[in-house]
DNA sequence: CGTAACTCGAACACCCATGTTCGAGTTACG
DNA sequence: CGTAACTCGAACATGGGTGTTCGAGTTACG
């Protein structure tokens, strides 16, 4: 509804210090919304090192901020996958590559989605369906088509399993119950165990 | 701190209608806390069909209610597993049985844990570690010891994977993306895919 | 250098959830 | 039946989050 698009590059008609503060706010929002629920405007302002009034000057409402943070997260993830070409790899190998590059992002987006649930319109959220998420899903489809991944379970279920296992890995990592160096490998091995056709 | 224990069976010095209302409140709390975050006292009172004042008469604070609900959930789960003897079955078969009997409970407890996080002392929560959860974990250990489950991934990681996949199944079921009849089977197959030793 | 853009603390109005009190009505139970 | 236990709506105090306004100070930028 609001005419000012925070799309990818904001309009240049803003002074440099204002632009810098907006940046700080979005990063703070990304950090807080991406890790804990119940974030307040004061929290974000403090985390960003900015006055509450300034925060409201740039983002008129809680909902506006939440939307901008989500948009920013999506922009980031697009940038992160841009250089990645998986089309030459077999699906299982491609999964390992994608995971290594993106699993933290994927997890953060999942947490973010949950924590802004009450602030943004679910439809709006659905429209912006994260391209990085889609990447994983299309890889899944390809793997099934190639026969490298199992076809005896619903595709949507496999997709959901991926996301929840990624979330599990992030949780365990954060709780110190998983070795940071081993984490990606463990996660990849687990995902592939789920995806491989059953030995039946 | 409060001297009145809501342990398993409350003291009999309460009138019948009061006892009935406590029951209704706990069930309402279990329903709400077990499914959505941000539950208010008014919500619980309304769901229980009881006045807000009555609610406070039985549970002086939000924290008291939350603790009582958790305790009630644990009592329920103990009752549900009581008749189950898995010691005669091989670990993979035992998992299927346990899952069929308990996965909804296990998921609800996971959600509950998350939703009362800000209301109860984490230490208190840890002390009461749900026996039903422990049941799954000890089954896991047994399976590894018997060689039926893989030993190349950390036991704690396997445990975390189980819980997250159970949660995934409950989510998908609630969202209508998973056939209610097929759900348990799909879940069991997925869990066993993770647990089985890799074919390598 | 001067002005417009920007920042920010203080104070305000508002809403919502938590607890509490009062007082009158209802219900269990001896 | 009579009393103690219980219920419950209304109203209050409190605390926290959301937005807004004001006014003075700072900073970018032509």
From TrEMBL, chains A, B:
Positions of the HTH tetR-type domain: 19-77
Pfam families per UniProt: TetR_N
Keyword Metal-binding listed: no
Annotated DNA-binding residue span(s): 40-59
GO molecular function, one term: DNA-binding transcription factor activity
Keyword line: DNA-binding, Transcription, Transcription regulation
Family matches, as InterPro entries: Homeodomain-like_sf, HTH-type_TetR-like_transc_reg, HTH_TetR, Tet_transcr_reg_TetR-rel_C_sf
Official protein name in the record: AcrR family transcriptional regulator
């Amino acid at each position: 509804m609001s005419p000012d698009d925070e799309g990818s590059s904001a309009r240049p008609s803003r002074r440099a210090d204002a632009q810098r503060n907006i940046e700080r706010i979005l990063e703070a929002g990304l950090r807080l919304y991406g890790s804990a629920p119940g974030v307040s405007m004061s929290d974000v302002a403090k985390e960003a090192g900015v006055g509450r009034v300034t925060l409201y000057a740039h983002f008129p409402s809680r909902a506006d901020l939440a939307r901008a943070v989500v948009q920013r997260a999506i922009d980031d993830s697009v940038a992160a996958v841009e250089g990645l070409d998986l089309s030459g790899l077999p699906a299982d190998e491609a999964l390992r590559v994608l995971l290594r590059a993106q699993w933290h992002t994927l997890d953060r987006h999942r947490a973010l989605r949950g924590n802004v649930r009450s602030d943004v319109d679910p439809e709006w959220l659905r429209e912006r369906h994260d391209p990085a998420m889609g990447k994983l899903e299309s890889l899944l489809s390809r793997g099934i088509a190639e026969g490298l991944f199992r076809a005896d379970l619903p595709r949507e279920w496999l997709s959901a399993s991926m996301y929840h296992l990624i979330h599990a890995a992030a949780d365990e990592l954060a709780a110190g119950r998983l070795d940071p160096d081993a984490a990606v490998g463990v996660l990849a091995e687990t995902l592939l165990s789920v995806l491989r056709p059953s030995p039946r």
